[in-house]
Amino acid sequence: GGGPLYVLHVEPSDEREPDGVHRAVEAAEELGRQLGATVLRRTGDVAETVVQAAGELAVNQIVLGESHRPRWKEPVGRSIIARILRETDGVDVHIIADREGRSDGPQRENP
């Protein structure tokens, strides 16, 4: 058996999320509840809040969805994912690709 499962959604304090995000978050939270997770919602700087929660909850794995924010809006090395990787020692970080394709790159055809 593994440890406890948490589902954390961080509402960014510096920008409004796209409309579709709320439906996706609710679906993820519902799946988490079905799997016995504790569902948490916080507001703030996304990377800082994830790192803080990881420390508080003593997690050893983090699973992140790919950011919806186009990469050109993020200074080099300051992306949410880069900051979380840099600030969580001894924690495995898994990134799940956005099935819709990246907002700033070439669009792949789905087979």
Produce a short descriptive summary.
This protein is an alpha/beta fold and 111 residues long. It is built from three helices and four strands, in the order E-H-E-H-E-H-E.
Detailed description of the structure:
The chain has helices at about 20-35, 45-55, 80-85; strands at about 5-10, 40-45, 60-65, 90-95. By secondary structure, the chain is an alpha/beta fold. It is globular.
Strand content: 15-25%
Tell me the strand order in the biggest sheet. 1-2
SSE string, helices as H and strands as E: EHEHEHE
Query: Globular, elongated, flat, extended or rod-shaped: what is the shape?
Result: globular
Counted by DSSP, the helix tally is 3
Low-confidence stretches: 104-108
For the residues shown, what is the average pLDDT? 83
Helix content estimate: 25-40%
Category by helix and strand content? alpha/beta
Distance between the first and last residues' Cα? 36 Å
Radius of gyration, taken over Cα atoms and rounded to an integer in Å:
15 Å
Using DSSP, what is the number of strands? Answer: 4
Major beta sheet summary: 2 strands, parallel
